[in-house]
Amino acid sequence: MKRKLAEHTLNPVGLGCMNVAWAYGNPPAREDAAALFRHALDNGCEHFDTANIYGGGVSEEILHEAIMGRRQEFFLATKTGIVIDGTRRGVDCSPDAITTSLDASLKRLGTDHVDLFYMHRFDPKVPIADSVGAMVRAIEAGKIGAYGVSEWSAAHIREAHAVHPVAAVQTEYSLFTRNVELGVFDTTKDLGIALIAFSPVGRGALGGKLRDIDTLTEKDLRRTFPRFLAENWEKNLELIEDFNGLAAEAGVAPAQLALAWVLSRGDHVHVIPGTRSIAHWAENHESASLAIDAGILARAGDLINQQTVAGHRYPEMIRPTIDTEDFV
Question: Which controlled-vocabulary keywords does the entry list (predicted)?
Fold first, then answer.
């Protein structure tokens, strides 16, 4: 069943486009990434989510090359705000930065508009009304259809929404990561905002494939994430093995059970799992139409949750940039 997102009605399983350019493992060949995007569009994917920082714009460029000639057939989202410039790291959601970044993204994407433009992180240096004002001007100029925020707290979401309605809030949400349940989930539901779950398969941990963390490539970001460090992974792997058994009992793939659990949380919830594999894309895409017993979903939630998972979701150096409420 389709769900509302920024005045559109879409399949709630979209495609996160980070993995083709950055972060996990070695990026695929550019032509293979383009083939994945074309296959997804040909087979019912309606929502493609990218960002300016994914490969320094490479993800946006590949989307341009692969499917932008069919722009009217899909919902497109990208992001701004995270600064990665050589050794400089930070967040900039000042009006000038938003406008400049949007124009650069549109050029890389090869389009005159995106349907949704996110502030990728909260910028405490800039008044929310100023940042939202830049988004409103972009809406009025026809460059974006709506705006959203990513990893913002419930209070800041409400403040932004009071200036101009927020269409979507994107944050990490999975069996592993429940931070949204501290306030953001209820806020989005109350205000009629779509909740877009990134990393809904636990950054690949719940995909049924990863068992040995030593197989992660040297530059894989997960090597720095506490849940994937040796001292935590052994305990988490025990949970994962039990979870895989639940998926087998339900007759579905582990990733499908993980996605179905997130989608079951509310009718305003969407998921954007990332992948480099056409086969995995097809498996993920099918999740929205699966009928999984509510008892299995409940057992999955009881098995894997904030109390049973070992390790924080982010390393210490990243945690200060996350505005979403955190567990003590």
Answer: Oxidoreductase
